[in-house]
């Protein structure tokens, strides 16, 4: 028979933790001896090791209490589920660690290879470095917040740029960056973009991330903030498309 302090040292927890487990009903509290001390045996130590292992795995104390009284098969099935959850957490932590290491190395572009190749194509087609960097940053945001839909949205835009006419519109949009917002060329460009959009999506809805997502507005707001001309183009396009 050992004291609570000895039990704590053997198992690797604090006496306070053991008292919490007593209060929560996870570990039965033994009777006190003639000297007023609680005395624990080997079975208590084994039970405490089980509780500590589950707690370290992130299992809530209330669930541990239920598992302690569950039938053996239910207990083992719960352990398998907890193991699966841990596996997913480990994968998530490994992905986070990889991003952290890229950040430490100065690499802020955790983008798929097809996106990186597309960014190189933009430079080769004559887009400004300003436009390429803006596209890179925006795709980082899209892939980080909507990994399930980002790929389809990216491929739609990349496909549109394979059309020389549409690519020309994007190039004009890029070059409009420094124009005065009242320049007549702004109105003409907005009209041409609107016409091209209607033609491309005549029988389909405009591709989007999520109707409830705030990311598209955040992205367009970032673009608009970069140039008064771009902001006016967006205003005109929205008015003409009624979006």
Automatic annotation (TrEMBL):
It comes from Streptomyces monticola. It comes from the Bacteria. Keywords: DNA-binding. PROSITE patterns: HTH_MERR_2. Residues 1-70 form the HTH merR-type domain. This is MerR family transcriptional regulator. Pfam families: MerR (PF00376). PANTHER family: HTH MERR-TYPE DOMAIN-CONTAINING PROTEIN, REDOX-CYCLING DRUG-SENSING TRANSCRIPTIONAL ACTIVATOR SOXR.
